[in-house]
């Protein structure tokens, strides 16, 4: 699993080891988490996803389980409405965390 050296001006050892370190960091950073979404009407949805998925990806997974269109779903925690283009890791959403699910 050696990274490609295309784009390097010279094949120096330092650049090569830096590319390997970046690749290993990227492989370690992605992990599967389970998020619990409660619509406060009696339905609880458990979704397994990666921590580098966006909120939009999470909405698509919830829509597949609930039968609701993804554009009609709003995910929030307290009064913070989560934006579609930001990742779960950026919002610090961890394994087992509970979020609120609303339908627009």
UniProtKB/TrEMBL annotation:
Gene3D superfamilies: Phosphatidylinositol 3-kinase Catalytic Subunit, Chain A, domain 1
Pfam families: ubiquitin (PF00240)
Domain Ubiquitin-like: 33-104
InterPro entries from the UniProt entry: Hub1/Ubl5, Ubiquitin-like_dom, Ubiquitin-like_domsf
Keywords: Ubl conjugation pathway
Superkingdom of origin organism: Eukaryota
PANTHER family referenced in this protein's UniProt entry, alphabetically: UBIQUITIN-LIKE PROTEIN 5
Record-given protein name: Ubiquitin-like domain-containing protein
Organism of provenance: Tagetes erecta
